């Protein structure tokens, strides 16, 4: 199913898309939008803050703030 959705979305064929990579990208996008960790957890289904911290890489711009 994920493969079909990636194809429909126009993702490159050589790029590997997995549930894990999509979830990580989602967490990063949510965190970059300054959504609080508790809301991020509610959206992604994570059980604790540490688990979303492992996924997210804070941008240089956010680090400077």
UniProtKB/TrEMBL annotation:
InterPro entries, alphabetized: DNA_brk_join_enz, Integrase-like_cat_sf
A Gene Ontology BP annotation from the UniProt entry: DNA recombination
Entry keyword Transferase: no
One term of GO molecular function: DNA binding
Keywords: DNA recombination
Keyword NADP: no
Protein name, as recorded: Tyr recombinase domain-containing protein
Organism of provenance: Dreissena polymorpha
